[in-house]
Amino acid sequence: MPEEQWGPVRLEPQAEAELRARYERFCIVRGGGDCLGLLEDGPYLRADDRSTLALALAFGSVLDETHAALGRELNPKALLASIVWMAGIYMGLWLLPEPVTKGVAAVLTVALVAWLGIDTVWGLMDGWAELVMKARVATTFDELREAGVGFAKVLGTDAARAMVMAVTALSGRTMAEVGPALRSLPSFRLAQLQLGGQGGPAWVFVRLEQVQTVAASAEGALAVTVGPEGALAGAMMSRNSAGGASSSGSSANEVYRHRGGNRQVERNGERWHLPRGVSVNDIPAADPLGDQLQAAAKQVSTKWGRHMFTRDERAAYDRLLRRGLAHRANLLERQARGRWVERELQKLFPSLDCRGRGVDVVGSASQKYHYEILSGTDWNFELHGRRMASTFFRMIFF
User: Fold this and answer.
1) Phi then psi for 313, rounded to 5 degrees?
2) Residue 363 pLDDT more than 80?
3) d(CA 352, CA 346)
4) Greater pLDDT, 73 or 355
5) HSE value, Cβ hemisphere, 13 Å, CA-based, for 181
6) 34: three-class secondary structure by DSSP
7) pLDDT band at 281; cut points 50, 70, 90
8) Within 13 Å and on the Cβ side, how many CA atoms surround 323?
9) What does the pLDDT read at residue 198?
10) What is the sign of the dihedral through the CA atoms of 327, 328, 329 and 330?
11) pLDDT confidence of residue 317
């Protein structure tokens, strides 16, 4: 969350001591001591500790049910801590720019959509963002309980049980193990049918081991990437393999290979997209315009603020906040920032051949490559490579 708006509150020593005492009373019937492991990194509850405690309060009776059912067979403290921390870490991924989950977290997203429905999952994302905001400024246990109660209303008992069930099933699993683990859970066949009924192909649920990523957009869609047999292992290997040498003589490392044979490579801090059939030797030894664009993009992006919103963007942003959809409002802001950076670069480089469709900037007639302006996240890099698989371009990122 924006630090200047939602920065954590530093508690006074007396408030810290009182909050710790209330937390320890909360733990008395849940194994005693530091039942959630919040004090392992220090004697008091930090901002992220407060969010975790508020989440545990939101789970409420469902967490107690799990403790009663499994606490005799497993270490109760380890059980509670692993469930709450896993759920918190997973949901925390949705607060990142260009939210995308990968690996086991992506499988968990698919599972929750199947069991709960996409609208409920989106509600959980928005509710979690609100809980984090409230927990960061909370100074008392009662304020944390209030934040937890607010999220509990969004979560509901059934969703809480489904999340605890899925998190418990996936904890400590490798990708090869997640499929059998989820297929053994109650109502798997019903969940598979529900996923198909929401517009998602039911076969995705059967091929859980091959789910690579799940990404969210501000419009409310979730994109699931599923690779063929061996595609995930191949992608992981290609990230660590050398892609050869460019015409400059310096090495270019392959960082992503798409299913269509197009790939992305890095050279001296530059990121290039190479269509199928294009070699790293086609990367120019020098790219002065690209270097100027890259430096300007990084400089311009630091000047962004919400006062840069267009009137329509401001109206849409405020409307989402009024509806309590803070997470989607932040997504909209990040997208608006990207458009603003593009407009500013066009002002700085008026002679550029800018396009509204396809690649952002078309290079000169004497060169084969072009330029694409984007925020530099893994998801955005992968998305633009899929969208323009046949285009040779340098990625200008910020």
Assistant:
1) -65, -40
2) yes
3) 7
4) 355
5) 20
6) coil
7) confident
8) 12
9) 67
10) positive
11) 93
Q: Which amino acid is at 137?
A: V
pTM for this entry:
0.55
Alpha-carbon gap, residue 47 to 22, rounded angstroms: 16
Give Cβ neighbours of residue 275 (< 8 Å, ≥ 6 apart).
262, 389, 390, 391, 392
Q: What is the DSSP string of 326-380?
A: HHHHHHHHHHHHHHHHHHHHHHH-TTSEE-SSSSSEE--TT-S-EEEEE---HHH
φ, ψ (nearest 5 deg) of residue 226: -125, 125
Give the pair of three-digit tokens for residue 366: 């004497």
Query: Dmax of the chain from CA atoms?
Result: 74
Whole-number pLDDT of residue 361? 94
pLDDT for 3: 40
**SS3 state of residue 283:** coil
Helix axis angle for 118-137 and 103-116, nearest 10°, is 120
Dihedral sign computed on CA atoms, order 105, 107, 109, 112: negative
> Which amino acid does the sequence have at 116?
L
Among 168-182, 202-216, 221-235, 363-377, the least confident range: 221-235
